């Protein structure tokens, strides 16, 4: 048994030396006719020192389960494999990269399980990634990780989707507190981690911080990518909180945060009042700030996480009393908004 374990250990460590050398950009273009597609927001990171640094930011992934999003030609994939996970699943939408990823799969055969999934990460169900992975208790250290150099065009949408999955403990979070290590356009990364009073503070800041602990680990200059984007990139880790900041429904919280920050340079009441139909707007706006014990003349970026959640809680209480209010949309079609013009609380009884 000991000899077998030693042999297996040697084989896994030998992966570092067995990986095929990373082709130059010129080789990739010539051999596989690859080029970054603008419509897919593709930017390749080829510097091994930086890809190693991204994977290192994820923490210890040895013998763990890892999903990589958008591996492209496989530069980050190689850095992940060098840290010897138990099982790596790469999800790639672009069929042009499958041959380069297949090369990595063949080089790690019988040593690390590497699955190549050709799919859109926005549609892929991460629950299916690791059929042999035993779910861990939410309070335990996670054995699952998601790592990815995200396309700018889908990064915010994808993060919101994942935060919702995190709140419901579904998708990748059926396995436990799956951690995230992701790249974002630097401005987006700064928004995710923005604290109270920051000019960058927004809906994304709050939603990220209600369910996870985000950290901006380091910044990668745009010049390190091919093709070079016009902006720098931030590497962010998001580790799910053992105890989330709220148990309110995710969609309701996101809705209230969206209204709170819809007019960030004006008093926060200007955004909140639009949650309610015209005839009852003033009364319910006064109520929500009174019961939440918040100054209605504050500005959104001045509110703490707790204060924002108090506003969401009172809104939740109101729609529990008057469920129809939840369907009101002040930006909806004119004919729909006109239906609400004469509605008051008595008509909603």
UniProtKB/TrEMBL annotation:
Assigned protein family: Belongs to the class I-like SAM-binding methyltransferase superfamily. rRNA adenine N(6)-methyltransferase family.
Intracellular or extracellular location(s): Mitochondrion
One BP annotation, GO: transcription initiation at mitochondrial promoter
Group of enzyme by EC: transferase
Gene Ontology CC terms: mitochondrial matrix
Alphabetized Gene3D superfamilies for the sequence: Ribosomal RNA adenine dimethylase-like, domain 2, Vaccinia Virus protein VP39
EC number from the UniProt entry: 2.1.1.-
Assigned keywords, A-Z: Methyltransferase, Mitochondrion, RNA-binding, rRNA processing, S-adenosyl-L-methionine, Transcription, Transcription regulation, Transferase, Transit peptide
Residues that bind S-adenosyl-L-methionine: 43, 45, 70, 92, 120, 149
Domain Ribosomal RNA adenine methylase transferase N-terminal: 50-242
Protein name per its UniProtKB record: rRNA adenine N(6)-methyltransferase
Keyword presence, Coiled coil: no
Stored PROSITE patterns: RRNA_A_DIMETH, SAM_RNA_A_N6_MT
Keyword Metal-binding attached: no
Domain of life: Eukaryota
Any matching Pfam family: RrnaAD
Major localization listed first in the record, in broad terms: mitochondrion
Molecular function in Gene Ontology: mitochondrial transcription factor activity; RNA binding; rRNA (adenine-N6,N6-)-dimethyltransferase activity
